[in-house]
């Protein structure tokens, strides 16, 4: 973990663009509750093939202008053309955005062509070619391996390609086994990778939702956690209380061992993040 201890700690949060007026109101309420914590930046997801492109843009601008927080759009490149990515980059640049999360994304079902980018390292390279050092670029990392990777070694090599293409930092897929993260960092250190790799943190508030997400993204829910969550049945209050305890303990262990901050997948909800933040005693603007 030595490579990680040298980086200043950064606490950040992720949101998704709202799809209805009701969801917009909810996101504003959530941001009003979370903004006083002063996260270092707030990232906003981007639908595959640009399905939420305008909404991502609007949400980023609102976070920046109405809440005074640094906003960081995600850009996914699969099924996109270079011209469309160029246009997005310049629009963000014109709005004073300096921070980007660069991803490949997933091909929407029914779409067969990957477009002009096959992998995220090509997007990182393109952003550097087009905009030099204007953007601080984050990429995705997978301590439990990306579900489509043929092996851990191949996935690590892919991660290294993104770093070499010009990434400044990485945010991990969420996980509940801290050992997976510590081992991943060891493996990265062996390959000479020493950029900050911030753990992505998924609060546990809803068992069926977390089970579905984890199935899709390859995050393992430890058996003892799964069994307890199952035993709570429809008792949402107990699920939330147990989830808060488990995820706060995970965060504590990660920070104690030298993780350079935490990135919270808020799912546009404030309470779980507020609870974890309080349990960890994170200061405002840390
Ligand atoms: C922090 C974070 C935020 C995310 N935000 C979004 C979002 O906003 N929108 C969205 O649609 N998705 C998002 N995702 C999901 C992500 O798009 C998917 O996991 C996607 O399948 C992979 O994206 P990537 O950028 O990691 O791809 P890549 O790094 O390109 O990797 C994809 C796969 O290809 C392999 N690979 C990579 N490069 C090569 C190469 N040169 N040759 C052969 N194989 C290679 C990798 O090992 C991996 O299996 C996010 C994931 C994370 C962790």
Report on this model:
- With about 290 residues, the chain is of the alpha/beta class.
- The chain has one domain: TIM Barrel (Alpha-Beta Barrel), CATH 3.20.20.
- The chain is built from 11 helices and 9 strands.
- A 9-stranded parallel sheet has the order 7-6-5-4-3-2-1-9-8.
- α3 links the parallel β2 and β3.
- The longest helix has 21 residues.
- The radius of gyration is 18 Å and the shape is globular.
- The two termini are about 20 Å apart.
- The model has no long low-confidence stretch (mean pLDDT about 95).
- The structure holds flavin-adenine dinucleotide.
- The site of flavin-adenine dinucleotide has 25 residues, from β3, β4, α5 and α6.
In short:
The chain has 286 residues and is α/β, with parallel strands linked by helices. It has helices spanning 2-5, 21-34, 53-67, 82-94, 120-131, 152-164, 178-190, 207-217, 223-232, 236-256, 271-280; strands spanning 10-15, 42-44, 71-76, 99-103, 136-141, 169-172, 197-198, 200-201, 261-265.
